[in-house]
Design a protein that fits this description.
It comes from Kocuria dechangensis. Its EC number is 4.1.1.36, 6.3.2.5. This is Coenzyme A biosynthesis bifunctional protein CoaBC. With 408 residues, the protein is of the alpha/beta class. The chain has 2 domains: 172 residues, Flavin prenyltransferase-like (Rossmann fold); 221 residues, CoaB-like (Rossmann fold). Helix content is 35%, strand content 23%. An 8-stranded mixed beta sheet has the order 12-11-8-13-16-17-18-19, with helices on both faces. Strands 2-1-3-4-5 form a 5-stranded parallel beta sheet, sandwiched between helices. Strand 18 and strand 19 form a beta hairpin. The protein is globular and about 80 Å long. The two termini are 39 Å apart.
C-alpha cells in the first residue's frame, strides 16, 4: 500500500518520523510530503533516509511528472500528522499553495488528519468549524490527545501517539473490507464520562468519573467490528481512534445527544455517570460569600432519567435494539451493591446492567475494575474482573452473545 504522509509545521513533527517507521516496518511504501514549516522542525535528510523517497514541498518540483497531482492520484491512503490549525484550515477550504495541499485535493484515497496544536487553538470555533467541514467532506479527523503540550501548557491538543495514528490509519484503509467480529456491521452508541451541572460561571456539581470504562467499551466495540458513536462528557483519558465523538457537558446535553444517536443504533451502552440532580437556578455571576456569614441554600431538581427514556423510546418504536446500563453502587448498612443493581435493572427496563461498587478509592479513575453483569432475560450473572480494557472486551463479548441469542 502506498501511504502519503503529510507533515505539518509543528513541534510534534518529530513523532511523524516514528509514524513513518511504523508504516514502513509493516510493509508499506511511504512518501513523505512535509510543508516548508515542517522542514524547520525535521529536515529533509531524515524523511528521505527513513522513506527512501526524495522530499519535495513545491508544486514546481518534478513538473515533468506532474508531481502535484501524481502523488494524490497514486496514493492508497493519505495521513496528515501533525495537522496544524493552519493546515486544517487550508485543507477544509480547498486551498492549494504547496505540494501537500494539492495532493489532498487530487487524491481519492481515504484521508486521515491527526491534529496537534495548543488547546486554545484546537477549541477555537474557527478550528472546530474547519474540522466539521473536513468530516462533512468524508475525511477522518482524529480527536487530539490530552496531555503535556509545548512549554508548561497541558490540555487537549497533543498529537496522538504514533501507534494510535498507525492503528487508526490502517483501520481507515480497510474500511471497505468486510468487517469481522461479534458486532460487525452494527452501530453502537456508548456514553462515557461524568456530567457537570453548573452552579455559576465558575462552579459545578460533578462526580469522580474519569470516563475510562466507557472509553474502553467504545474501543472494544470498535475492535469487534462496530461503527461506534461515543457521547463524551468530562473525560480524563484520550478518546480512542476510529470512533465518532460528540462532546457534551451537562446531563441534558448528554440526553439530547444520546436520543439522537440511539435512533440509529443497534446497541446502546450507557456507561456515563449522569448527574441525578442539577441546580434549579444557575447564577449569572460567581456566587460570593455572604457578609453575614450565612450559608447558601442551593435548590436541586431532578435530571431526566436518560437510560429509562432510551428504553422507553426503543420499546415505543419497536426497535430491535439491545440496551446496556451501568450502575455505580456503594451499598448501605442493610443492602449490598448487587441487590441495588438487581432493583435498578427491573426499574430501568434495560437488557443488561453492569454493576460495580464505587467509592473514593474504588473504580473511579483506576485502571482495574470488577463488573457484575445482570440480565433481564434471566441469563447467568457474570463477573468480569481485570483491567478496564479487559473488562470492556468481556462485556462486548457478552453483548454479542445476547444479540446472537435474540436473533437465533
Amino acid at each position: 500500500m502506498k501511504v502519503v504522509l503529510g507533515v505539518g509545521g509543528g513541534i510534534a513533527a518529530y513523532k511523524a518520523a516514528l509514524l513513518l517507521r511504523l508504516f514502513t516496518e509493516s510493509g508499506h511504501d511511504v512518501v513523505p510530503i512535509p510543508t516548508e514549516a515542517a522542514l524547520r522542525f525535521v529536515g529533509a535528510p531524515t524523511w528521505e533516509a527513513l522513506s527512501g523517497h526524495p522530499v519535495s514541498t513545491d508544486v514546481f518540483d518534478r513538473v515533468d511528472e506532474v508531481n502535484h497531482v501524481h502523488q494524490g492520484q497514486t496514493a492508497d491512503l493519505v495521513v496528515v500528522a501533525p495537522a496544524t490549525a493552519d493546515l486544517l484550515a487550508r485543507a477544509a477550504h480547498g486551498l492549494a499553495d504547496d505540494l501537500l495541499t494539492t495532493t489532498l485535493l487530487a487524491t481519492r484515497a481515504p484521508v486521515l488528519f491527526a491534529p496537534a496544536m495548543h488547546t486554545e487553538m484546537w477549541l477555537n470555533p474557527a478550528t472546530q468549524a474547519n474540522v466539521d467541514l473536513l468530516r462533512a467532506h468524508g475525511h477522518t479527523v482524529l480527536e487530539p490527545a490530552v496531555g503535556r503540550l509545548t512549554g508548561p501548557d497541558s490540555g487537549p491538543g497533543r498529537l496522538p501517539e504514533p501507534e494510535a495514528i498507525h492503528d487508526a490509519a490502517l483501520r481507515l484503509a480497510a474500511r471497505d473490507e468486510p468487517a469481522a467480529g461479534p458486532l460487525a456491521g452494527l452501530r453502537v452508541l456508548v456514553s462515557a464520562g461524568g456530567t457537570r451541572e453548573p452552579l455559576d460561571p465558575v462552579r459545578f456539581l460533578g462526580n469522580r468519573s474519569s470516563g475510562k470504562q466507557g472509553i474502553a467499551v467504545a474501543a472494544a466495540a470498535r475492535d469487534a467490528g462496530a461503527d461506534v458513536v461515543l457521547v463524551a462528557a468530562h473525560l480524563e483519558a484520550p478518546v480512542p481512534a476510529g470512533v465518532e465523538v460528540e462532546h457534551v457537558g451537562t446531563a441534558e446535553q448528554l440526553r439530547r445527544a444520546c436520543v439522537r444517536a440511539a435512533a440509529r443504533a443497534d446497541v446502546v451502552v450507557m456507561a456515563a455517570a449522569v448527574a441525578d440532580y442539577r441546580p434549579a437556578r444557575v447564577a449569572d455571576a460567581k456566587m460570593k460569600k455572604a457578609e453575614d456569614g450565612s450559608n447558601p441554600v442551593i435548590e436541586l431538581v431532578r435530571n431526566p432519567d436518560v437510560l429509562r427514556e432510551l428504553v422507553d423510546l426503543r420499546n415505543t418504536a419497536r426497535r430491535r435494539q439491545l440496551v446496556v446500563g451501568f450502575a455505580a453502587e456503594t451499598g448501605d448498612d442493610r443492602t449490598d451493591p448487587l441487590t441495588f443493581g438487581r432493583q435498578k435493572l427491573a426499574r430501568k427496563g434495560c437488557d443488561l446492567l453492569a454493576v460495580n461498587q464505587v467509592g473514593e478509592n474504588l473504580v473511579f479513575g483506576q485502571d482495574a475494575t470488577v463488573l457484575t453483569v445482570l440480565s433481564a432475560a434471566g441469563g447467568p450473572e457474570q463477573v468480569l474482573e481485570g483491567s478496564k480494557a479487559d473488562v470492556a472486551r468481556g462485556l462486548v463479548e457478552r453483548i454479542g452473545q445476547e444479540l446472537a441469542a435474540v436473533r437465533a
